Each structure stands twice: as structure tokens, then as C-alpha cells.
Amino acid sequence: MKKGKEKETRRLPNLSRREFMRNTAAVGALGAGIAATGLAPVRAAKASAIEKTVVPPGELDEYYGFWSGGPSGEVRILGIPSMRELMRIPVFNYDGASGYGLTNESKRVLGPDAPPNGDTHHVHMSYTDGTYDGRYLFVNDKANTRIARIRCDVMKTDKVIGIPNVQAIHGLRLQKVPRTGYVFCNGEFRIPHPNDGSILDEPEKYYTLYTAVDADTMEIKWQVIVDGNLDNTDTDYSGKYAAATCYNAEGAVDLAGMMAAERDWTVIFNIPRIEQAVREGKYITLGDSKVPVVDGRGRTPYTLYVPTPKSPHGVNTSPDGKYFIANGKLSPTCTVISIELVDKWFAGELKDPRDVVVAEPELGLGPLHTTFDGRGNAYTTLFIDSQVVKWNIADAIRAYKGEKVNYIRQKIDVHYQPGHLKASMAETKEADGKWLVSLCKFSKDRYLNVGVLKPENDQLIDISGERMELVHDGPTFPEPHDAIMVHRSKLKTVRKIWDRKDPYFAETVEMAKRDGVVLERDNKVIRDGNRVRVYMTSSAPRYGLNEIRVRRGDEVTITITNIDKIEDLTHGFTLCDHGIAIEIGPQQTSSVTFKAEKAGVYWYYCQWFCHALHLEMRGRLLVEP
Ligand code: RUQ
Ligand code: CUA
What we know:
- Helices cover 13% and strands 38% of the residues.
- With 625 residues, it is mainly beta.
- Among the domains are: 164-360, YVTN repeat-like/Quinoprotein amine dehydrogenase (Methylamine Dehydrogenase, Chain H, 7 Propeller), CATH 2.130.10; 503-623, Cupredoxins -  blue copper proteins (Immunoglobulin-like).
- The N and C termini lie far apart (65 Å).
- Dinuclear copper ion binds at residues 540-541, 571, 606, 608-610, 614, 617.
- Cu cation A2 binds at residues 606, 608, 610, 614.
- Belongs to the NosZ family. In the C-terminal section; belongs to the cytochrome c oxidase subunit 2 family.
């Protein structure tokens, strides 16, 4: 068997997937071999199903998966169906490999005094006409009440903004139609206004707000005060409505109080009416912020509160644009809200907010999030049951009307306690129903024990046929909350090398111009009082300067331009004992500023293995006493 394996490794790049499977004894024998170990859930998957997940060496995945990273503060890129982790994008965290949070360029993105952590939950790609357009990703930071934008052409974070008047941005979604004009974000926790200590233990005076941010300028356009708190959010396919769940209608500040009521609600925002109120000046402002704030509490023209059992969590729009589905969490149900009836409500044709509900299927214990296959089926995670349930929306609606139909199609065990789940392209009108990932919060026994902190378990499920089939376990560092699956045809614009005119380092280029430096050519040190600006190039395997002389106490800015034009030829600059490391991709300019506080000799070196003489790619910083 060993021999055979070696042989096929050599031949691999030319093999079809089927040949690869046939020739790879270890994988080919999965059905039988794993059954022998007694791992029941894997035994259940047919080798033919698992076969579809194999991406042979040298071949590419069909989908980009974008995962949030939870308290790691980052976003990750995985290939689907292989589930290989392809890249990590630092967003709210500091990163020692790329120098994110250390370079001047990334500090401009993060802003002054940026906290070193974040808590990313919901990552979503910008839309044009109801489907992904490959321009941007947006993601929330629950920990420090911020949102960020990532440019998809270079996969770098290019904007980070704080959201005023709220605490803990949780749910985040994008306008889908006609394009992503707005980023909507939920302030989860209710707080006093102003939150300056003048109001403390008077929770009845707390409230929170829904925020709309302009996706192009990242300016905050307006906010809406709501009753209760805000958990998750989603938008429709007409551009008119957004919905958000509330799990603490009670406005309590303790656990028992938060679970007291049998129903909380889903609040639906009428975006054109809110915009009109803002235009007509029907708003207030809060504290120092100039953001227009519309009051959406109680019965207003802007909001509709749909009673929803019980402490609902996720809210998801069906890809046919017809329904918002709120996931019951403490109720075994999902609440299906008809967007057509929401139109009627706002037109004044309905009396009771419950009239917009068209189904309340009973699915199992702990429904958290729902996704779709584009064929009329929904898939919901059952946190407590550790299952994904597939159900049919049209049948659930018929059952609600009293017909005797079974809307449940299948339940499949997942391992264990799933939170989000997402099917391929499911949040677009092009939902294609091929793959589904279930992001399980616990992995327990699914992997070699690595200590007390375990990875999470992102399971890949084949949903292309009648029956769901579990086909892959993927460990992830704790803890991604959500993920999206984007067909690779949507990301044709991803660059291979930087454009010298890229705005990411435009300010640094301006600085060089003022110093009369041609970045692609010059290697020089410019002294300006006790400020020293060092310009140099990098080209494998050397820096333009192999020594830099400064004086103790100088503020030193090192600017490096990678003049290599070869794809993947990234250099770095790490300065020993100074906490400095930066990434310089091909044709990129990166800079870093620090104080030379210690006299002596400090080596700098390239930290990306770029050449046979990579270890020799180094130089000395000589700091005169
Ligand atoms: S939440 S596990 Cu932060 Cu998206 Cu539901
Ligand atoms: Cu340049 Cu290693």
C-alpha cells in the first residue's frame, strides 16, 4: 500500500478526481476501513459521496468559503469542498506575520488607539442585483462595537469604523438589491443614553439602535431606536426591508428575566420610510454624534414588531425573496414571515402583526440558523438536538393552514451543537444547493485530543441529492460563528500582485514624493531633525540597504518597496528585539515607524522564505549611543 501511494503521488496532477480516488488506497477504502474503527457517523457516508469532496493535489476548489474567526478577530478563507484553509485576513486583531496593526498603512485602517482584539461573527460579501459581486466583504466586531470592510481584490482590510450610540455590534447584513448601498448592523446590548455614568442601574431607561452604514463611503447614514435588543439581521430581495430578531423583549439584565416571556419579536424595518423621515428632518441626534436617529419604538410607520417565540436567534431570507425565517432558539419552531404580507401591513391592510406569519413549523430543539438550497427547502441547525433538519417551506405553510402534510424531509446528526450553517450561494438569488457547512460549537471526540481547548468542528454536508450526506469533518480554531460559500466565478477580480497605484499605500507614496524619492529605485536615508526616513527596495534575496545608521532617540520610519514582479514573491522586514514585522508583497510598498531607544546593533531580516539565499537577506540597524 505504501508503495502504491508513492507512485500515485508522482502522477497526481494529471489524474481525474475519480482516478485519484481509485488509486488512493487509503481514501478508496474509507467506507470499509473506517467502519472497522467503529466511528459510526463516518461509516454512514458513502465513499461515493466522500469522493466528491476530494480535490486532488494541483486542482482548485469550486467555492471560496469565508469564515469569521470569532474572538481571534480575523476572517479566514477556506476552499470548498476540500475544506482546506487557504488564508487568514487580519481584521480587528494584530498579526505578526503580515504586520497588520504594526505597519503605518494598517494603522491608518485601524485608526489611532485601536484595541488589539475583536470578535467577528458575521462576514458577508457585497451584492449587485441580489448576488455576490466580488467587491467587498464586511464583518462585525462585537467586542469593540466596530465594523470592517475587506477589499476582495487584495483580501486586505481597508476600513474599520466604530458605531456610535450602541454597544456590541452583533448581527450584520448587507442590502442585496439593487446593490449593497447599506451595511446594516445590530447594536445588541441595551445601554443608557448618555452612557457617561449619569444613568447606571436603571435598565428601564436603556435602549439600543439599528444602524445603516453607507457601504461605499463607510459613513453612518442613520440609526433607528428599537424596543428590546437586537440579535441577528437579514435583508430582503427588493431593497425595501430588513429584519432583526430580539431575544430580550423583557429588557432584563439577568438570565431568568431574559427568558421570561413566551414570545419576543422580529422587528422589520421599512427602509424607504426611514430614509424619508431622515430627509424630512424627523429625527434626533444623540450625544456628540451627528447621526440622524429615528425613533422606531412602539407602533411607528418605520417598524413592524412580529411576535416570535421564544428568544429567537437567527433570521434568514429565502432566496426566492418571499420569506424572512426567524429561528426560535428556546422554541422548537421557526417563524415564517411573508414579505408580501409585510407589504400589506405597511399599506395598512392588516390589523394584527401576527397576520404576516404564514408558518411556524416545529423542527426540533434549539433552532438557531436556517439556510436554503434554492429548491424550496430550508435547513435549520438544532443546537440542543445536535442535528441539521431539512424541511420544505411550501409544505410548512400548508401545514400551518391545517393540511396534513409532513414538511420534515430529513434530520442528520452533526457533531456537536451546531450554531450557524450555510449552503453554497444560499444568501443570494443564485442559491445552488450543492454543499452545506454546519459550524458545530463542540468537537469533543472528533479529533485527536489537543488539550482542554478543542477545535470546533465544521462539517461539510452534501445536499445535492434527496438526502443530506455528511462527508467531511473540518477542525477550526475557536471560534468562527458564521461562514458564506461563494462560487469562484464571483471572484475573478482577485489580484496576483499589487498595483503600484493602489490606494492602500498611497499616503506612503505621497510621503516619498515629498522627500524626492523614487520608491522603485532609490535606497536612501533622509534625516529631518531627529526624524529619520529610510527608503529602500527589496528584491530576492536582498534589501536595497544592508546597513542603516541612526542615533538613539530617533524616530525612524522604514519604507520598503518590493520591486519583484513575480506572483507569490513576498518579502518581509523583521527588526530584532523591536516587535516589528511587516509584509511586502510583490509591487507593494509598506512602512513602519518606531523609536530607536536602544543603542547597539540590531539585525533586520526577511521573514518570508523567498529565495535559496533567504537567510542571507538581512542587514544591520546601527544605533549610535
Ligand atoms: S450568532 S450561533 Cu453571533 Cu451569528 Cu448564531
Ligand atoms: Cu525575502 Cu526572504
